[in-house]
Amino acid sequence: MHSHHIPVPARVPPGRALIWLREGWQLFMKHPAVWVAMGAVTFLLLAIAVPLPLIGRVLAMVVLQVLAGGMIAAARHADEAGTLQLNELWEGLRKHAANLAMIGVLQGIALTAAGILTMITSLALGLLLDLTGLSHFSLITVVLSWTADLFVSFIVVVGMLLALWFAPALVMLNRASPFDAMRLSFQATTHNLGAAGLLSLLLVIGVPLIVFSTFGLGIVLVIPLVATTIYASWRDVIGANPATVI
After folding, report:
1. What is the pTM of this model?
2. In the chain, which end has fewer C-beta atoms inside a 10 angstrom radius, N or C?
3. CB burial class (10 A; 0-12, 13-18, 19+) of residue 162?
4. Angle (nearest 5°) at CA 178 between 240 and 50
5. d(CA 229, CA 225)
């Protein structure tokens, strides 16, 4: 990693999440047709990748990270130059394809590890219940098993999301390596858990509402809007502090 490229993340108040979402929306609305086209292309490629046997899920994650990098770079260009073209979607593929793809691979490994860890937790819990004689109580067994599985999955997924939030932006805009990008993303988001948590809550509520209320068509709006919001948060937490580096 080149230290002069990576600013120390700033700490911001939780309310900044609302500003990130507003600024992301404003960026989107400057070129809505192009952003929707980018969202449609991204969704189409993901829809092609996911059903592929054996490699489909990991390939989809690779595609998503590479295109996310392109959209975040496009958001910066639109923010600074005021213009946007559809071919900017491929900036990640042209400039940092290997690093962005590695983030997707690491995401796939993390999800696979989460599944394995959940299975091990279930087996260990089942053995413990057998040893204590509680396995005869089926309701207790089911409740404890589900609780343990959900807890393990929640911890892994949340940790992965924290490591991924700024990662494509750090690769594209700060030229960080994949491992450094994920480490610094985790550091930046944990330093701003209030803002990250509020934004996550808003997205968890808002994204399904948009998608379901538009009979699925809203996904082509949601994809670029999340990218522009990530860019807005990167600009506030990382991009706005270029003088102090690690």
Report:
1. 0.86
2. C
3. buried
4. 110
5. 6
